[in-house]
Design goal:
Blueprint: E1 2-3, H1 12-24, H2 33-47, E2 55-59, H3 65-73, E3 78-83, H4 86-95, E4 104-108, E5 121-127, H5 136-146, E6 147-158, H6 164-176, H7 186-195, E7 199-213, E8 216-227
Parallel strand pairs: 1-4, 2-3, 2-5, 3-4, 5-6
Antiparallel strand pairs: 6-8, 7-8
Helix pairs in contact: 2-3
Length: 230
């Protein structure tokens, strides 16, 4: 089932992101970059302390790989994926393994207006998409809203300070891709997490030096974990 955003006004960056990813959805999954995304998504999923009955939200889910991977790990729970692109969501629904369909769900949504009541998810995951969000602290506060008290969030992103490649790529994307808000350093992201009111912010991984691994030329990554206050 797909829940579509209706009646929401989008900012310029959000509108640009939706258009970009609606177009990318036609090719997503066939690009070599997909191997890199899936590698990093598995890293982030591994940082979550899941239980069999966990209810997990995958933010910026794209075509849903991480969402149904999460569903496979929570046999008594469920996994929900949200993405601003309706075309991405449509592809995600078509790609869910049949044995996971009953506990895998998708919604089109903007990250600052998630279509869920408060205190519903035990875990949230955000991988390779935080740089598309023009209001990062507001985004984190909205994620915190839908987490249960004590709920856990994991964010994986490029770490801007570790790689000249990432810094140059950041500048280029701001020029050519309107949906790119910008990469953050690990210090900046950690401060945003704390400003949003999340507890126990922990930098689980800060790594550079990838070279032609998983078809990514250069990369540096940061992986943060935190909790909603109890």
């Amino acid at each position: 089932m797909i829940t579509e955003v209706k009646g929401q006004s989008l900012g310029d960056v959000e509108s640009a992101s939706r258009s970009f990813f609606d177009d990318w959805a036609k090719k997503y999954g066939f690009r070599r970059l997909t191997r890199w995304f899936r590698y990093t998504q598995r890293l982030a999923i591994g940082s979550l302390q899941l239980r069999p009955d966990s209810r997990v939200l995958d933010i910026g889910c794209g075509t849903g790989y991480a969402t149904w991977q999460l569903a496979s790990l929570v046999p008594e729970g469920s996994a929900f994926g949200v993405d601003i692109s309706l075309e991405m969501i449509r592809r995600a629904c078509r790609q869910v393994p049949k044995d996971l369909a009953q506990r895998t769900h998708f919604s089109q949504a903007t990250v600052t207006r998630l279509p869920f009541v408060a205190n519903v998810f035990t875990h949230a995951l955000c991988t390779n998409s935080f740089h598309h969000y023009p209001k990062p602290v507001e985004t984190l506060k909205e994620i915190k809203r839908v987490l249960v008290p004590g709920g856990q969030l994991a964010i994986l992103e490029n770490a801007r300070e570790l790689s000249m490649y990432v810094r140059a790529w950041d500048v280029l994307l701001k020029l050519v891709e309107k949906g790119h808000a910008g990469y953050h350093s690990s210090q900046e992201l950690g401060q945003m997490i704390e400003k949003a009111g999340l507890d126990n912010a922990e930098l689980c991984l800060l790594k550079k030096g990838f070279f032609f691994r998983y078809n990514k030329v250069f990369a540096s990554i940061q992986l943060w974990r935190s909790n909603k206050p109890k």
